Amino acid sequence: MAEPILEVSGLVKHYPLTRGVLFKKQVGSVRAVDGVDFVLAAGETLGIVGESGCGKSTVARMLCHLERPTAGAIRFKGQDITQLSGKALKAVRRNIQMVFQDPYTSLNPRMTVGDIVQEPFEIHPEAAPKSDRRRRVQELLEVVGLNPEHVNRYPHQFSGGQRQRIGIARGLALRPEVIVADEPVSALDVSVQAQVVNLMERLQDEFGLSYVFIAHDLSIVRHISDRVAVMYLGRIVETGSDAGIYDHPTHPYTQALLSAVPVPDPAAREHRERIILTGDVPSPADIPSGCRFRTRCWKAQERCTREVPLLAVPERFRDAAGPVAHDSACHFAEERRVLPPDEPPGPHGLVTA
Amino acid sequence: MLLEVHDLHVEFGTRDGVAHAVNGVSYRVDAGETLAVLGESGSGKSVTAQAVMGILDTPPGRITGGRVLFQGRDLLRLKEEERRRVRGAEMAMIFQDSLSALNPVLTVGDQLGEMFTVHRGMSRRDARLRAVELMDRVRIPAAAQRVGDYPHQFSGGMRQRIMIAMALALEPALVIADEPTTALDVTVQAQVMDLLAELQREYRMGLVLITHDLGVVADVADRIAVMYAGRIVETAPVHDLYKAPAHPYTRGLLDSIPRLDLKGRELYAIQGMPPSLTRVPPGCAFHPRCPLARDVCRTDVPPLQAVQGPGAEEGERASACHFWRECLHG
């Protein structure tokens, strides 16, 4: 593997639950993120998938230092950014930038596009001399496929896809090495999503970016990611190469998640195996003992209530070669293929004009 | 035929001029059939449904033409009083956002029971019993204990089940579901979609499923109508449409789905963006984004015409493209 650019270990974020106004006391905590470890190599894309409330956005916010971890370390090129403050922190933050989900609320409606993309330079004046900023902004707009002459327009004059391009231009302004993208395409129309995914891939090649790409759309995550981590209730339950996760899932939650995704192929309707989970995700304020997935798991046994399964290559696959040998936090991990094998292309083959 | 929409036109008065939201939409749904209406935001799919249900806000909305035949009666000619009797009892709607569609200050039991007290003149006590039965029917655990709970006390998936229960309470002949699972997580989405499909089979309802998700359509629909800029651009049995689309917009949508064999390559992307409804392009509304566009597309609106090809029996397939043959045969 290439040099790690980001190393996350034991990352925890607990929000206290309090009772009383005058005499506040803590009565519990919401364990939004409850021990997450991963490594991001330079130039690679790590996809994080999971359902709402699994903690994926909280992880993203901690990576960008928008949220302070309760415990754990986030090392950027070996340096723990959670311990930094002042100038040293500011210098590191330049290198990790975020692209947000909702291009309708993440751009200030009273600022022109030029001002929005230029704002990072005001916070980090050393990145570009004042005289050069206008040109840099126009360059950035061009890079993301917008007309540089539109610098004086306001966000509402752009469509959703164009606004997301503005958000990406702002994220690129300081030439960061890592971009954390939290659901960057899920607010966009289907016909526009592909454009933004293509843009992000092109920029990655052009600027050698590393991505943490968070989404709930599993097919887009597979397309863009080198490795994938599946989160459930504040923890990573399975992680591996995209082939390992999608074609050889060994954790029951991953299997259920993959099998539940509607496949855009009516022919797959009949011979598809679907695992329908019962019930809802438990509250992160009241996480089950042992394995946190056991309350919805069809394989759960007594051992699962007692022992927390560790995220490691399961023993039975330790000597296996190939993508099946990847980390899975299940006592009874076994391989089960749930996605229909991909049909040979049959691309409809329209040539773009 | 259960429902036939004929040449429906809907406009909205906006600050920027008249928005032509629905420009001559026709579709039909049979008993026991699932028609998926697929489109992006602004395609007119929800506005059409609101006009059919009679819940369009007028003003700013305005139905400027067309007919909505429900079991032979033109709903657009009914008086509001008669319309109200049809709505809820004979046709019902399931909304995307259950938290805003349910009344937050009434218990779910009261809201479900209301269907029976208002439409069937039942006593409150009987209505309550029916409410519990319904909650059981949509598999809400411990229904008898939870009938007195308020909507916010349920999870998103459970609330959506309550919406389904409410829609099915009086066993309507037609249900319109507007993005019923979009707000839900994938694993819950599967539960809710399965439940809806099961109940539909059991009651032999006609179902109009409005969605933007090609995956959901492939899973449950019998037929599909694809909408773009207020028009139906293609309609076909679902298998045929996925196999061989006859409109470049449909083809573009299918091609832009990421697939395994194209990993690491650029995704096919439809150029440009959906048009503004106050300035729908002349001719074919899709022409500025279409790889097949020629001069005729910039001037002449293509009619929805019968397509000969797979699934063409009984006039089941139609495409609003001047060059559908080219598109169909690649």
Would you write up a description of this structure?
The complex is a heterodimer of chains A (353) and B (330). Helix content of chain A is 28%, strand content 21%. By secondary structure, chain A is of the alpha/beta class. Chain A has 2 domains: 4-19 and 27-225, P-loop containing nucleotide triphosphate hydrolases (Rossmann fold, 3-Layer(aba) Sandwich); 252-328, no CATH class. In chain A, strand 9 and strand 10 form a beta hairpin. Chain B is of the alpha/beta class and 330 residues long. Chain B has 2 domains: 3-221, Rossmann fold, CATH 3.40.50; 227-328, no CATH class. Helix content of chain B is 34%, strand content 22%. Chain B is built from 13 helices and 12 strands. The mean pLDDT of chain B is 89. Chains A and B meet through helix 6, helix 7 and helix 9 of A and helix 8, helix 9, helix 10 and helix 11 of B.
CATH-derived architecture of the largest domain in chain B:
3-Layer(aba) Sandwich
Strand order in the largest sheet of chain B = 6-7-8-3-9-10-12-11
Radius of gyration of chain A: 22 Å
Describe the largest sheet of chain B: 8 strands, mixed
CATH architecture tag of the largest domain in chain A: 3-Layer(aba) Sandwich
Number of domains of chain A: 2
Largest sheet of chain A: 7 strands, mixed
* CATH topology term of the largest domain in chain A: Rossmann fold
Which percent range describes the beta-strand content of chain A?
15-25%
Q: How helical, in percent, are the residues of chain A?
A: 25-40%
Q: Give the low-pLDDT segments of chain B.
A: none
Structural class of chain B: alpha/beta
Q: Give the beta-strand count of chain A.
A: 11
Cα separation of the termini of chain A = 39 Å
Global mean pLDDT of chain B: 89
- Low-pLDDT stretches of chain A are 343-353
Mean pLDDT of chain A: 88
* Quaternary form: heterodimer
Total beta strand runs of chain B: 12
CATH homologous superfamily title of the largest domain in chain A: P-loop containing nucleotide triphosphate hydrolases
